[in-house]
Amino acid sequence: MSGRGTKAAPKPKPPVSRSRSSRAGITFPVGRVHRLLKKGNYAQRVGSGAAIYLAAILEYLCAEILELAGTACRDNKKRRIAPRHILLAVRNDEELNKLLAGVTISNGGVLPNIHAALLPKKTKVSKDDAGGAKDTTF
Q: Are 36 and 29 in contact (CB under 8 A)?
């Protein structure tokens, strides 16, 4: 045999490793969430789908809060999101306010609110006085 003839079949390439996050199509780390679920002793057993589901929920909530905070930032003519903008975004959204009702956001301040009883009373002007011509008799 001279070594000619059929060539050896090329070795199959090993499959490219893909993270569970990229397989699920999300940005948040599924592996880290899974590790934290196991270490947290929330349950004896943790399914693989639980980490994907939780990571997707966290990513959605983060995107929602950042979108609203970016809008609040733009309304205040700023280019950088500050804790104040996050607080305004959360407290002005009904569902997020309910979810984060017991949460204090550090350096967030408070919502601007003046109680109605503290506002100056509006005086009604009668039609007689509004005419401008007064009949003064001495």
A: no
List average pLDDT for each run of 10 residues in the chain, which is 138 residues long: 73 88 96 97 95 98 97 96 97 97 95 91 74 62
Cα 34 to Cα 21: distance, rounded to the nearest angstrom: 11
3-state secondary structure of 8: coil
- Contact between 52 and 24 (Cβ < 8 Å): yes
DSSP code string of 73-95: HHHTT-SS--HHHHHHHHHHSHH
Residues 26, 37: Cα–Cα separation, whole Å:
18
Residue with tokens 């059929």: 6
Tell me, what's the pLDDT at 32?
97
In angstroms, the CA 40 to CA 17 distance is 27
Tell me the CA end-to-end span of the chain in Å, nearest whole number: 140
pTM metric for this prediction: 0.75
Distance from C-alpha of 72 to C-alpha of 92, rounded to nearest angstrom: 10
Copy the structure tokens of residue 72.
Answer: 């609040």
